[in-house]
Amino acid sequence: MADEDAPDNEEAAKGSGKLKLIIMIVVGVLLIAALSIGGTWFMLKDNRSDPDAMAPEGSEPEEIADVPENREEALYHALQPAFVINYTSNGRSRFLQVELSLLTRNAAALDVLLLHNPLIRNNLLDTFSRQDVLLLGSVAGKQKLADDLTKTIQDMLLVEMGSPGIESVLYRSFVLQ
Fold first, then answer.
1. Once rounded to an integer, what is the mean pLDDT over residues 138-153?
2. How many domains does the chain have?
3. Cβ neighbours of residue 130 closer than 8 Å, sequence gap 6 or more
4. What Å distances lie between residue 105 and 43, 137, 146, 165, CA to CA?
5. pLDDT tens digit string along 51-62?
6. Which domain holds residue 41?
């Protein structure tokens, strides 16, 4: 009878050993994951409570330029819908989709912008059509386009309200295909 119970004990011992191995592996994986998360949190935690913590040794904190107190609040006007312009370059069709916002500090300019929205869009489309699509892919080309668009709107606002009205044209989206 003792011989008959021996194989069952060996199978139970093998099953118990496998269970312990699986538990040890799971605990090890969980420990590694916890250490990884803790290390990541420690490295990426926000040091804003100590502004000098991020400054290199020996460097002086930069002073923020004085902003004039009489400067008006920035106002933004989104030109909707987005502009979609097609170009042909070397026999190949290219498309530009641009979403623009206008920065102004003059509330009266916003009223003029709303009133003359069709004229503004027309003039901007003319400006887009004069651009070289090969240059638009570069940073300098994008900046030149923003400057041209700003000048186009400012010229129109000079005629309509006697002042440039806006400070700049800002890209909200710029997709060139």
1. 93
2. 2
3. 148
4. 41, 30, 18, 8
5. 555 555 555 555
6. 8-47
- The pLDDT of residue 119 is above 70: yes
Shared-domain flag, residues 39 and 98: no
* 160 in Cβ contact with 166 (< 8 Å): no
- pLDDT greater than 50 at residue 32: yes
Task: Give 112's Cβ-side CA count (13 Å radius).
Answer: 20
pLDDT, mean of residues 63-69? 54
Cis, peptide link before residue 61, omega less than 30° from 0: no
In a shared domain, residues 27 and 81:
no
Pair (42, 79) in one structural domain: no
DSSP string, 97-130: EEEEEEEES-HHHHHHHHHTHHHHHHHHHHHHHT
The whole-chain average pLDDT of the chain stands at: 82
Residues 99 and 148 occupy one common structural domain: yes
Q: Give the other-Cβ count within 10 Å of 8's Cβ.
A: 9
Cβ atoms of 166 and 102 closer than 8 Å: yes
